[in-house]
Amino acid sequence: MTTLAPPAVRVDQVPTASRERGGSVLWMTMPALLMFLAFGLIPLLGALGLSFTTWDGIGDIRPTGLTSWKAALSDPGLPHALGITFQIMFLSWLVQTPLSILIGVFIAARHRYRGLLAVLYFIPLLLSSAAISITYKAMLDPNFGIGSGLGISALNQDWLGDPTLAMGVLIFVVSWQFIPFHSLIYQGAVRQIPIALYEAAQIDGAGRLRQFFLITLPQIKYTIITSSTLMVVGSLTFFDLIYVLTAGGPGDATRALALEMYQKGFMANLMGPASCIAVILVLVGVALAQLLRRLGGRGDESQMEGM
Amino acid sequence: MATIDTGAHRRITPARRKARSNWLGGTFGWVWLLIVMLPIYWIVITSFKTQANYFVTNTFAPPSTPTLDNYRSVIENDFVRYFLNSMVVTVGAVVPAVVISFMAAYGIVRAARDRRVRSINSLFLTGLAIPLQAVIIPVYLIIIRLEMYDTLLAIILPSIAFAIPLSVLVLANFIRDVPRELFESMRMDGATEWGTLWRLAFPLTRPALVTVTIYNALAIWNGFLLPLVLTQSPEQRTMPLALWTFQGQFGINVPAIAASVTLTTIPIVLLYAVGRRQLLSGLTAGFGK
After folding, report:
1. Quick one: CA dihedral A219, A222, A227, A229, positive or negative?
2. Pick from A90, A78, A103: nearest CA to A232
């Protein structure tokens, strides 16, 4: 598929009303629309279609009605993976949100290190999930890792070999990677709060803590919704991080939905049931995003509309 | 630069008022910095250690006899090929993605009253909610049918598609801020829409274009799932996938793994160093509303 633009010359243009102008720029949206349809929207419908088929990934695709759905829904791996996914989602939200707000408020304040901090905080976002996972995997080695390095014997654990600990490590690594991003979002939001609000509160004798709860938090309400939406919907899609860090293990202790789908589809060659999981993934994501939008009470003018 | 002066926050002057006594955030901000930097410090110093040295010295101590051997063995293991593959995929996807997203964003802003354009825009917005994982199986099928499996183009095409929604959103928000009068006067001067796009919107939108370019480059450079599913042979491996296979290949040779992690990260850190200000301000402006 090419993305070549049509020739620039348009002799038919004597536009006056904006509606006519609309017609003349419509073609400009076409290359993006076609690419997006071909590799975004049509595959999305394709996933739904494939969920009603049986396919091993190589041979023919045979429509088999609800067979794949029955297989997917009767597999105990699915509720397990769903449970793990919600666990990761909730715990990582619970850890990340307060800390991101705290750091965001801190770096929004005027002090001479703000620039430096913003630079350094951003670094985890540059690294690939693969690089991060490999680093932590090596660092958490029970024999040569951080425990012995810091001389804290309590840190000498088989971090990725124990189901509970592995989940904890996963939440930690997720937070390590994404708290910087969310704190930068909060920093931006906090800096937009009118200073007059704080001045008025100060005159009324409100302390720092009261100012935080009565001004800062309500003022960044929409940012909390946006950030939470990104966190929650994003956590549905953790794949490379888990794949490289724990491969879903130990056992199936960290096998989240996206990983379950990959293993069903590309390891077990059950593309039908794997497509069912893909559909569930989308449904859960859309439902959660809608729920959060309702909670925010913001309605349709939100710029994160589609999320 | 002075030492860490937390006392400065307590000075009550109007300008510093907001920073004055957020000791909780302050303490935690610095602790978090330590948490962020520790693994990065660890991976870099480990990459300069010999394997023997790694096992006997304290893991956080700098190497007693720094060596470049790890880097040498990583580079000898086809690192250059993987690096070039990643470059081809990233440039090959980001440039067309940004160009067509920019055109689309321009069209969406200029024809905001056109119902067709509005529905195209809401399609793109819906796209923000589509996770790559959800469509990977059909994309795999399409790539096989197009006979592009195990080529770099197989990674590039879906990467372009998935860069579009957010790019259009950010760019359209930016173009919307261009005063309408400027467009009108361009039109009076007889400029075509295409001319207006390039000579007016393009220069004025440049900061947002840089933001979107860096953001997409980051995502695509670090992409893992598409290369994993759509390629197979070592010749088509990109860096994140190569990292993963290095890990298996080098086994317990942690310094070599550390060197490969460091090497794959350097290009993106350089890119960040160049476009940092733009990226940060673009991101905070784009999301912090």
Report:
1. positive
2. A90
Write the residue in A118, A185, A261 that is nearest to B288 by C-beta: A185
Dist CA B28 CA A28 (whole Å):
48
| CA of B261 vs chain A CAs: smallest distance (Å) | 6
**ipTM given for this complex:** 0.83
Judging contacts by C-beta atoms under 8 Å, the chain B residues touching residue A26 are 107, 111, 114, 116-117
In 3D space, the residue among A227, A13, A16, A234 whose CA is nearest the CA of residue A129 turns out to be A234
**Which residues contact residue A127 at a Cβ distance below 8 angstroms, ignoring those fewer than 6 apart?**
A135, A177, B222, B265, B268
Q: Along chain B (289 residues), what's the average pLDDT of each consecutive run of 10 residues? A: 39 44 74 90 90 79 85 89 95 97 94 89 88 93 95 97 94 89 87 88 88 90 95 93 86 88 87 75 55
State pLDDT tens for residues B273-283.
777 777 666 66
* Interchain proximity B28–A195, CB inside 8 Å: no
A36: which residues sit within 8 A by CB, 6+ positions away?
A: B123, B124, B127, B161, B164, B165
